[in-house]
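Provenance and format

Records in this collection were gathered into a single text stream. Each protein contributes a sequence line and a token line. The two records reproduced below are adjacent in the stream.
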Amino acid sequence: MSATIVLVHGAFADAASWAPVTRELLDRGHTVLVPPVYNRSLLEDGASVKAFVENITGPVVLAGHSYGGAVITVAGTADNVAGLVFVSGYALDEGESLGQLQGGFPDSDLAANLVYTPYPGGTDVSVKIDAFPAVFAAGVDTAVAEVLAVSQRPLTAQAFGEPAPVAAWKTKPSWGIVSSADHTINPDVERFGYQRAGVREVVEIDGPHLVMQTHPKDVADVIEKAVQSVAG
């Protein structure tokens, strides 16, 4: 049985961020699902995606973009997860938070372009709309970037400080994509996390943070390789 591919989006985005890769994988005959991530809490988001995966029959390959990488680090402990693919993502260690990993490599344009908006019980974090195309969606068609900027899904500030309770890459084979032109996450954050996780293969793509939008075939190739590997 071929693995179902579950694509997990990150902060400041939604399932539409994966649309070009979703189309590419569907055209190649894969079964693909792209659940919502609520961006309320790393623990809650990890539990939500894990529950989603556990309701799928058969093996699953989880691919997580950006914050979605942290989410699959937690959700990937589901018994039917056969492999992980980190895409411009945070491969957290057990007991480590987003802030801790990001803080070790501070050169990024993201921190200076965040907006903090209180809501009852917490604070939402989003990217300044006018800065979004350059900081988050560099290389993406301008018209598309403008739409993504005004439809972004914020991440609660709480999620930055929550430590990952588990690290699924310790028991599941993993692959990693580095966006070498990333202005949202320092590419060295990605490289460091993948090296520490002992991923089977690191692929460097000369693309921006939203590499799924600019290089969908390249991203799909890595995901497909993971599917083929776990199936064999």
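Adjacent record:
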Amino acid sequence: MEPLDVEGRFDVHEYRHGLKLVSQDRATMHLENREGFACPACGDAFEDLFVSEKRENTFGSPGGPFCVVRTDDQVLLLTH
């Protein structure tokens, strides 16, 4: 399993072959893991990835385990 590289800044274009864009606006992106990439926090495969450049974020209940990763200017929420 290839883990996502989150050094400095996460670049979604490096993983577009395995991540399906579900929704996007100016500062957030929701992606589905179609390739079985590994979570950079725990090393397990994740299901969905939420990327935000916003300073404040509110999340509903993801319905299961999740990890949060911080890059230089992004917050990544990965659901398992």
